[in-house]
Design brief:
The chain has helices at about 15-25, 45-55, 65-75, 85-95, 110-120, 130-135, 135-145, 155-165, 200-205, 215-225, 225-240, 275-285, 300, 315-325, 330-345, 355-365, 375-395; strands at about 5-10, 35-40, 60, 80-85, 100-105, 125, 150-155, 175-185, 245-250, 255-260, 265-270. The protein is of the alpha/beta class. α11 packs parallel to α14 (about 315-325) and α16 packs across α17 (about 375-395). It is globular and about 55 Å long.
Length: about 400
């Protein structure tokens, strides 16, 4: 049976990997979903192509220059798409009264304000922008509880954990959860000689063995900071203490995460490494719809391997654990320093092994303060970025 009402969807970050996968799933179900707004940062030509195909009510570019370029590219097209720009435009479409669902897929701190606007407006928010939750955890969760918005995790690991928990779910203790097992692929350098890591190039770091992702998240996967951010995200999403989450390296990326229960049961969610699966799950929850992902062939796969993470090889994972334990603005500083360091690495201005070194120096120097509101979050974020740039200047 098809739903009586078509859901109106905003895709924040529509030209990125998650955004394009979301549009692929939406296109498979035109009777269920309509595209209300699409947004992009620098890929204006791609955004124009998406507008021509999906005819959204609004399109948002990051800058006025980008918005004007988009208007020029759409000139002559028989579209009623209104072009907006900047954070104000992003927040406007995310909180629009006509919108049902918001896919939050803008990478990094840039996604915080529009994602928070969607939460405050009580939307169904599909969270693929882990940085928003990491940098503003207490503020984000207070807004979520106050608004009654529905937050569904889209990161494959957190979506897997969500699927392995009873819904609705109270505290982990109340449903008998003993431990969350957060899986990690180990990235492209899981077995590379440690002494050779300082020679890693951006292209090597972005060549993930299993997933097709953007360059920033690919570097995060290579350093395992992505898993560190997901560790913090899991604590916040599921009300878990740091001691209740164990990171397990699983090179095949088939088991997306597991939940261990008090009675000895371990529930796992498995699937091919394709983000359309968690996207489709989030869009249709609590129903199930076709995602376009091929069925998994366990016989052909043959084996599943698991191992403990090498903390010496991946110091970013330990830094993230420390930041979560410190609390307050420490995760904000961690995320900001990482974004600055990764950008420097991608520009050829910092060695791969310099990324955790910069982050560690920033965490040592940044004061951990209570996050009383969005202004406190952005102040801590700005200060950590300044410190990271100072550290980079001294390298």
């Amino acid at each position: 049976m098809q739903p009586a009402v078509v859901q109106s969807v905003v895709v924040l970050g529509s030209t990125g990997s998650i955004g394009t996968s979301t549009l692929d799933v939406l296109a498979r179900h035109p009777q269920r979903y309509s595209v209300f707004a699409l947004t992009a940062g620098k890929r204006i030509a791609e955004l124009a192509q998406q507008c021509r195909r999906y005819a959204p009510r609004f399109a948002v570019a990051a800058t006025e220059q980008g918005a004007e370029e988009l208007r020029q590219l759409l000139r002559g097209a028989e579209l009623d798409t209104q072009v907006l720009c900047g954070v104000e435009g992003l927040c406007r479409v995310a909180a629009d009264p006509e919108v049902d669902t918001v896919m939050a897929a803008i990478v990094g701190a840039a996604g915080l304000r529009p994602t928070l606007a969607a939460v405050e407006a009580g939307k169904k928010v599909l969270l693929a922008n882990k940085e928003s939750l990491v940098m503003a955890g207490p503020v984000f969760m207070r807004a979520l509880n106050a608004s009654g918005a529905q937050l569904l995790p889209i990161d494959s690991e957190h979506n897997a954990i969500f699927q392995c928990l009873p819904q609705p779910c109270g505290s982990l203790e109340s449903v008998g959860v003993e431990k969350i097992l957060l899986t990690a692929s180990g990235g492209p350098f899981r077995t590379r000689v440690n002494d050779d890591l300082h020679r890693v190039t951006p292209d090597e770091a972005c060549a993930h063995p299993n997933w097709s992702m953007g360059r920033k998240i690919s570097v995060d996967s290579a350093t395992m900071m992505n898993k560190g951010l997901e560790f913090i995200e899991a604590c916040l999403l599921f009300g878990a203490g740091p001691e209740q989450i164990e990171v397990v390296v699983h090179p095949q990326s088939i088991v997306h995460s597991m939940v261990q229960y008090r009675d000895g049961s371990v529930l796992a969610q498995l699937g091919n490494p394709d983000m359309r699966t968690p996207i489709a799950h989030g869009l249709a929850f609590p129903e199930r719809i076709d995602s376009g992902v091929a069925a998994m062939d366990l016989v052909a796969l043959g084996r599943l391997d698991f191992e403990a993470p090498d903390m010496g090889r991946f110091p970013c994972l330990g830094l993230a654990r420390d930041a979560m334990s410190a609390g307050g603005s420490a995760p904000t500083s961690l995320n900001a320093a990482n974004e600055v360091a990764v950008e420097a690495f991608l520009r050829g201005q910092l060695a791969f092994t310099g990324i955790p070194a910069v982050i560690e120096r920033v965490l040592e120097r940044a004061e951990a303060v209570e996050l009383t509101g969005l202004d406190a979050v952005e102040t801590a974020d700005c200060r950590a970025r300044e410190l990271a740039l100072e550290v980079l200047g001294a390298v």
